[in-house]
Write a structure and sequence with these properties.
The structure holds 2 protein chains of 2 kinds. By secondary structure, chain A is mostly helical. In chain A, 18% of the residues are buried. In chain B, helix 3 packs across helix 4 and helix 3 runs parallel beside helix 5. Classes of the chains: A mainly alpha, B alpha/beta. At the A-B interface, helix 8 and helix 10 of A face helix 2, strand 6 and helix 3 of B. The complex binds adenosine-5'-triphosphate and magnesium ion.
């Protein structure tokens, strides 16, 4: 099984060690900026920034490429739509479809935006464990508690879900192997036959998921879990000096890139 | 009968990442035809990884698995055919049950083999009877059975394919002594009835000593011992060096031997009792 959801590459780089709240805030800012940049120069600088982080985090390039590869088809499709369906000066014509210069730029912008978006978010999940991310989210959204949004409960649900993704994917792999050992065939046959072949996997998987949920509920009950009680943490998140430096630095740099480059002509 | 042979098998998990782990390191051995072999080793020594290579659930990156002298990945019938010849019962197999009735669940394997309805029926009833699942249980839902019964249904599900090599990965984990002995006795019976080769992965030295005639020992992905029970568990056993123990009675007899008593190695409580009784009658122990 290959579940890349929140695939974490442990490490000790500055990118890894930066406070997850800082990373989350900067990620949001980065994505917002991607959709506001209107010049190639802007993309160039953002790309340089991204390259710097990739270099620092030591995340292997193949891992980033794997994330991108899956979107290749969608990228190609939207680029073609952009190329042919944008009004403007003619670039070339095939049959009755006219590609325009404006369309070409729009297509390139889309490619740049989407791929930088994927690389950026992959970097966040590759360098931050899912649990840290959930914690960061909970802390950042804490003010919403005043509006009666159950932030703590939602975070607990997310933590539990994340905790069980690897467990269930391992379980799926095991059940699949066990059924293959009895001659189950998941690879051939019609769509209908393949769907039917999933029953021997899904039934045991659901049975075990419910059993685990039950056990967890009992275990939490035994430890007097009460969602209304405030909880402390084993590892408190503390902003260090480097975190403040990175945060302020980026808060200045990213908008500066936007404002600086959008005035340029290219 | 089929001859299963492993040549220089190596497996590395998560190759090229921070989690890289060499789970198998140039493992080679031949399973004695029609024999009962025990596979022991610490937690994480690579036993489950090894057995999953034997029926083609994992493909060797390096090395070969041969069935009757032929690489299992180069056979005519394809890898599915291999899985019908080399039956593998997983650790905690009761979690793989899925059908509405016990009968249908046991029939899953033989049906996948493409056997005729009569053959499937015969195999299912035979396997169920062998593991002590009565006719009255065949129509019940497998989810209504006790843990031990579920385990036996799952084992019957593999036996019903009548594989000529039967591999069981800790089939007795979490069962009481009677349940363990029942299942191992049934495995023995299967072996004798079918003339099959059995490979049993176990953490219990007592179980292995009682049923196996040869023992394989894994340590950190390497095969460190491969010999008859008398040799591996004998008075000059090297198992202590890798932190594994011989059966308790064996260890007691070894101490008696070291203190100068005229005892020979024993591996089961019954053999120990017989020997002590003999000595008492003969006045060997005073
Ligand atoms: N899917 C996997 N990915 C990475 N490493 C794994 C994987 N499966 C097993 N390992 C590692 O390979 C080693 C051997 O595992 P294996 O399950 O074969 O051990 P075992 O001898 O069967 O142990 P046990 O007695 O606990 O069942 C272990 O160190 C384990 O951590
Ligand atoms: Mg194991």
């Amino acid at each position: 099984m290959n579940v890349t959801l929140g695939q974490y590459f442990p490490g000790h780089s500055l990118t890894h060690r930066t406070d997850p709240r800082v990373k989350l805030v900067l990620e949001v800012l980065f994505i917002a900026e991607l959709f506001m940049v209107k010049r190639y120069a802007g993309f160039l600088l953002m790309g340089a920034l991204l390259a710097l982080v990739v270099h620092n985090s030591k995340i292997p390039l193949w891992a980033l490429w794997r994330g991108l590869r899956r979107l290749l088809l969608i990228l190609a499709f939207t680029s073609l739509l952009n190329l042919f369906y944008t009004d403007g000066r003619e670039l070339f014509t095939i049959w009755r479809l006219t590609a325009t210069w404006e369309g070409l730029h729009a297509a390139l912008f889309t490619i740049l935006r989407i791929s930088m978006l994927i690389v950026g978010t992959s970097l966040l999940t590759f360098t931050t464990s899912p649990i840290m991310l959930t914690d960061a989210l909970e802390r950042l959204l804490a003010p919403l508690k005043k509006l009666r949004v159950p932030v703590g409960e939602l975070a607990m649900m997310m933590t539990i879900a994340l905790r069980f993704i690897p467990v269930l994917s391992e379980e799926t792999a095991k059940i699949m192997s066990a059924q293959k050992a009895r001659g189950a065939d998941f690879e051939s046959g019609s769509v209908f036959q393949r769907a039917r072949a999933l029953i021997p996997i899904l039934v045991p998987l659901f049975v075990s998921a419910f059993r685990r949920a039950d056990e967890l509920a009992v275990a939490m009950e035994c430890r007097c879990y009460d969602s209304a009680m405030p909880r402390s943490r084993l590892k408190e998140m503390r902003m260090k000096r480097a975190d403040y430096l990175i945060l302020t630095g980026m808060l200045l740099l990213i908008p500066a890139i936007l404002m600086g480059t959008n005035r340029l002509w290219i | 009968m089929s001859l299963l042979e492993v040549r220089a098998l190596t497996h590395v998990y998560a190759q090229g990442t921070a989690y890289e782990h060499r789970a198998l390191d140039r493992v080679s051995f031949t399973l004695e035809e029609g024999g009962f072999t025990g596979l022991i080793g610490h937690t994480g020594s690579g036993k489950s990884t090894l057995v999953q290579h034997l029926n083609g659930l994992m493909k060797p990156a390096e090395g070969q698995v041969l069935l009757d002298g032929e690489d299992i990945w180069a056979r005519q019938g394809g890898i599915r055919g291999v899985r019908f010849l080399v039956g593998l019962v997983f650790q905690y197999p009761e979690y793989q049950l899925f059908e509405e009735t016990v009968y249908k669940d046991i029939a899953f394997g033989p049906t996948n083999m493409g056997l005729s309805a009569q053959e499937v029926d015969r195999n299912v009833r035979q396997a169920a009877a062998l593991v002590g699942i009565g006719e009255e249980l065949l129509g019940r839902s497998p989810f209504e059975l006790s843990g031990g019964q579920k385990r036996r249904v799952a084992i019957a599900g593999v036996m019903a394919m009548r594989p000529s090599v039967l591999i069981l990965d800790e089939p007795t984990a979490g069962l009481d002594p009677q349940g363990r002995e029942d299942i191992l006795g049934q495995v023995q019976q299967y072996r004798l009835q079918e003339g099959a080769t059995v490979l049993l992965v176990s953490h219990s030295m007592e179980d292995v000593a009682r049923h196996a005639d040869r023992i394989l020992v894994m340590d950190h992905g390497r095969l460190v011992e491969n010999g008859p029970v008398e040799e591996v568990f004998g008075f000059d056993s090297r198992l202590g060096d890798i932190g594994l123990a011989v059966p308790q009675v064996t260890s007691i007899f070894r101490q008696l031997h070291r203190r100068g008593h005229a005892v020979s190695p024993v591996f089961t409580v019954e053999a120990a009792i017989a020997q002590i009784e003999g000595l008492l009658e003969g006045g060997g122990i005073g």
